[in-house]
Write a structure and sequence with these properties.
Layout lengths: L1 H7 L4 E5 L9 E5 L12 E7 L9 H9 L8 E6 L5 E6 L3 H7 L2 E2 L2 E2 L1 E4 L13 E7 L4 H8 L4 H9 L3 E3 L2 E2 L12 E4 L3 E10 L5 E9 L4
Antiparallel strand pairs: 1-2, 3-5, 3-8, 4-5, 6-7, 9-14, 10-11, 10-12, 12-13, 13-14
Helix pairs in contact: 4-5
Length: 218
Amino acid sequence: MYIFKEIVGNEAQIYHDGGYKNAEKQRALLCDWNAPYNLEHFEVQPLQIEYNKKWDKLTHSQILGVLANSGVEISSFGDIINDEEDNWQIFVKKDLTDFFIRNITRIGRSKVKLKPISRNEVLNVADDATSKSAVSISLRLDAVIASAANMSRSQVKESINNGNIKLNWHVVQESNIIVNVYDILSIRHFGRIQLEKISHTSKGKYRLEFKVWQTKKR
């Protein structure tokens, strides 16, 4: 979205929505400055997954696997969210609502039913990110990760070689890429880091301020 806005500049309006606040996967709306808009323009439909919670248990990976193998493009659905009471919801393109309802009737061993809901019924998902800061000698990807994730440069290099590090959702193969504000670094077994501010220390190093979404231990 950041790159999209940089390209468009002041030539048009850009709005984005994924069905709830801070959604990771979102749809964008590009329109003229004089054009009004509302949430219906994004055509995002939230669906509640109904199942027998007394006997069955669903997981994010199970739901994602069923959606990804349902015969539609990955861009046809958005985030998968849940709460502490094992309620699960997904977000899909509105014109494919009936398709998902008809075709997704089982997740794992559980019989399920997808039910369209309004935005007022969407679960309240808390942002579990923590704000942190670190000092790095460089803005190279390996140096930033080493400082932010408290890893050695050799550990970072090994993770890169194993394909375990992504920059803005793309697997990286080089450690000397320069990162910048708003970039998101995904580190397998650690979590995600988003740079929010870069400044200089009195000794000429880089002070990094970032958000961390730590991988939850299962």
